[in-house]
Each structure stands twice: as C-alpha cells, then as structure tokens.
Design brief:
about 475 residues, globular, 5-stranded parallel beta sheet, 19 helices, alpha/beta
Length: about 475
C-alpha cells in the first residue's frame, strides 16, 4: 500500500480515553481504526481483518503485550507493530524490538511523535511490499515456513553487496549452510569459499594458519605457505564460531578487515587479499563485549548485515520436508530403497523440543533409517530411545493417553497445553495433520487423495498451497 493510502490500525489498550484520542489522531491522518481492550480481542480482530499496524499496550488485563508480539505479527495480514505504554522500561523496550516490534512509544507521547511512528511503519510496510527479491538459488536450504522465508529476504540483500554479514543462531540451525548460500548467490561465487573454524585455532599456529608464513619463519616452516585469508582472495572468508577467536588475535584481524592487507609470519612484505567476510556464532557477542571478551569495534565491523536463524521449534512446519529430504539422501547414498513414514510420525516429532535443531533432527532420522532395516516404513518405534522417552514423558505431562510408540492421540486436549487456540486455529491444525498423513498414505498420488478426501482438485491444491505442502505431490 502507498503511505498515502488508507490503512487499518488496531489499537490494543484497555484505557478508553487513550483509545479515543488515538482514534481521533488516526482519523485526522486519513486512516481507519479498530479497538481491542485485551489480547484475546486483538487476536480475534486479526483473524477477521487485514490490519496494517498494531499499536500494542504493554500491560493488558489478560497478559503482557510483549509476550504476544510474535503471534500478532504472524497473523494473516502480517501487520507492523508499535509498542506503546505508560511505563518507560528500557528492558521491555529492548525485548519488544527483539521480538519484532518496529517502534516503541511511551505514553503520553506527543502528537508529532505518534504521527511520525505511524508514518515510519507505513513507509516500512510499503517498502517491504514493493521489494522484489532477486532470484535466488536456494537448492541447499530445505523449508518454506514463514520464519525461514523471512531469512531468504536477508540472504538476497546480503548476496547483492560486499558488506560483512554476521549470522547468529543456536547450534545446529544451519549457519554455515546460509553462509555458503549467500556466497553462491553473490558476484564472488566463482571464487573460493574458505572456512575458518575459530574454535580450532591454536594459540601457537593461529597467525600462520590465517596469514601464512615464509620459509624459515619457525622451526617446522620448511617452505612458504599461503594462509586462509589469502586463499579467500576475491572470494568469501567464513569465520565459524567467531566468538571463540582469541582476544589477542581480534585486534590484528580487525586491521586486516579494514585494510585488506597483512604480513605473513616471518615476511617483511605485506600481502593484499580482497575477501568478503561472513561470520557466525551461537554466542551472545554484545554480552561478550560488555564482559571484555570481544572487541566492540570488531563486532561493529562484522555486522553490517545480521541474519538471525530461527531454532527448529520455531519452524516446525519444516520438520516434514527436512526429514523427507534427509531420508531420501540416505537412501541415495547407500543405494537403498526410499522409505515412507508411518501415519502420525511427524505429529509425534513436532512435540519434541529439538535443542540440537536441524542437526539433531538429521541424526534422529538417520538412526531411524538404519533401525528400520529392510522395512519400507519408518516407524515411531525406530526412533532413538531418548526421543521415545521424551515423547512418553510429554504424553504424561500433557495428560495424553498415547504411548510414545503408539498411534497419535486424536483428542483436542493437547491443543490447550500449547496455548489457547481459537476454534479456527484448532481446525487449521487438524487439517494440516490430515493432509500430511494423506500424503504419506497415498505416497503423493493426487487422484487417490481426491478419491479419499472427497475434495475437488482446486480445493485440494488450495489447501496444499496454504500449508506449503505442494512439493510432496507427484509430478
């Protein structure tokens, strides 16, 4: 939408006088207003209306607004969100921004400050809508969930320039995979992608490893050696686990980043290397800066772009495609027949916490693949013992009667252990699960799915598109 076009703004606040003043201001700006006095009403509004901006109070009768930012922003219209409260709390402001709020206002805010915040939000919304992401090669990345799709836009922006990129995320989220994807979509893709494992750098050989050395520089230096920084010339230098880089090296590496020049160990001549740096970490670098364990100037230099990868429990819609992809890869690698998954397999996996993220999921699927032997179906009973124990414990704590190795529970009681979904949300979850099991049962045969489900072809395809499952239909 154009910034000048009429927008729909939802004000979530239990103060009626504040709502009326905001409604008056928003109307004068030429926009429409909806009001909600609590979080439940806000979610109901977003289920029915295509809202452009949400103005959200921090303290509401049924909870803290900051705890609902992500869920509100994931509504169908994907609204921008401005946090607004009568208590200026720096910690809650920072938390709101981290969770996706675009701005933060403190009541009583001036008319000009409020107008400016709304205008900025509409300008940002228009820019996002009008942005046309360049065509990317994403063959190596599996998944189409909303959290991972948001990462694709950052990949596209980062690939189109030569600035530094800092990729953050938990262990096993695929930081190196995304670094390689940025490189493969950049103008530097014809040159090398060099990985430096900062956690493996030893104090004695770190400078030689990075910058190379001249013959005779030390006892075992019997010939000249090119370092990894020079090997990345015109390509990409990937610094994995940058938080583990020794503090003593950070200063000299900062100079190399700035000057793109360095002196190999034992040499009197400087060498140039035109490399692009991408760094990754699962550490909290800003906290390390405050603790004196990481240089602030190096952090600023590294993070021209910051890409934060979501943990697997935030993208559970990708569990099935990730598992299917890995199982197919195992079958191809070992010359075995592809295996299917028993009904309810992914419903059970979605209940797990996955602290090791995608890496842990792949290890679990590999275990199940070989535990199944000649059986063409991967079953819940083929999962590692620790996963089945976790499922059994979850079944008990959630009040489900299902055993970890049995059929999935068809009751709705477990929905309320995961929040307070509306009837619309509960229906959506059941439809998603039905389609996943229908795919497995028919092995993607569209005609069989039409016969079984009783749906028209157009309705079936619409549902598959909605739940991002079209890639599992037989071509």
């Amino acid at each position: 939408m154009d910034v000048q076009e009429q927008a729909l703004i939802l004000v979530v606040d239990d103060d009626h006088l504040f709502f009326e003043s905001m409604k008056s201001l928003i109307t004068r700006m030429g926009h429409r207003t909806l009001g909600a006095g609590c979080l439940a009403e806000a979610h109901a509004c977003l289920d029915k209306e295509a809202v452009d901006i949400v103005l959200l109070d921090l303290f509401l009768p049924d909870g803290l607004g900051v705890d609902h930012i992500e869920r509100l922003r994931q509504s169908a219209s994907n609204p921008e969100l401005i946090m607004i409260t009568g208590k200026g709390d720096p910690d809650s402001a920072g938390q709101a921004i981290k969770k996706g709020a675009l701005d933060y206002l403190v009541k009583p805010s001036s008319v000009q400050a409020t107008r400016s915040a709304i205008t900025r939000a509409l300008t940002h919304r228009k820019a996002i809508r009008d942005y046309r992401r360049p065509s990317l090669c994403l063959d190596a990345i599996i998944g189409q969930s909303a959290p991972i799709r948001r990462c694709f836009d950052m990949v596209a922006r980062a690939a189109g320039c030569h600035s530094g990129v800092l990729i953050t995320g938990e262990t096993g989220t695929g930081k190196e995979l995304f670094a390689r994807t940025i490189h493969e979509n950049s103008p530097r893709k014809v040159h090398q992608f060099i990985t430096v494992d900062c956690a493996a750098l030893t104090e004695t050989l770190v400078e030689s490893t990075l910058f190379g050395h001249s013959k005779g520089a030390f006892t075992s230096a019997d010939q000249d050696r090119t370092g990894l920084v020079k090997a990345a010339d015109k390509g990409t230098l990937f610094l994995d686990e940058i938080g583990e880089m020794p503090l003593a090296l950070q200063k000299s590496f900062l100079r190399v980043l700035q000057e793109k020049r360095f002196r190999p160990v034992g040499s009197t001549t400087e060498v140039e290397s035109d490399f692009r740096v991408i760094a990754a970490t699962n550490r909290n670098l800003p906290r390390m800066v405050e603790e004196g364990r990481f240089r602030r100037d190096l952090l600023f230099r590294l993070r021209a772009f910051t890409l934060k990868l979501p943990p697997l429990h935030k993208r559970k819609g990708d569990l099935m495609p990730l598992a299917v992809h890995h199982a197919r890869g195992l079958a191809a690698r070992y010359g075995m027949a592809e295996k299917q998954f028993e009904p309810g397999f992914f419903d059970q996996l979605s209940r797990c916490v996955w602290p090791g993220n995608v890496r842990e999921l792949f290890n679990v699927i590999e275990h199940a693949f070989f535990a199944a032997g000649e059986c063409p179906i991967l079953r819940i009973m083929d999962l590692p013992e620790e996963i089945r124990i976790e499922l059994a414990q979850l079944a008990v704590t959630q009040g489900q009667a299902t055993e970890a190795e049995g059929e999935p529970d068809d009751s709705l009681s477990h929905f309320f252990a995961q929040g307070e979904p509306s009837i619309k949300e509960a229906k959506s979850r059941l439809e998603h699960r039905y389609l996943e099991e229908l795919i497995q049962y028919t092995q993607g045969d569209v005609q069989r799915m039409l016969d079984i489900s009783g749906l028209s072809r157009s309705h079936l395809y619409a549902m598959f598109k909605r739940f991002e499952l079209t890639q599992y239909l037989k071509k």
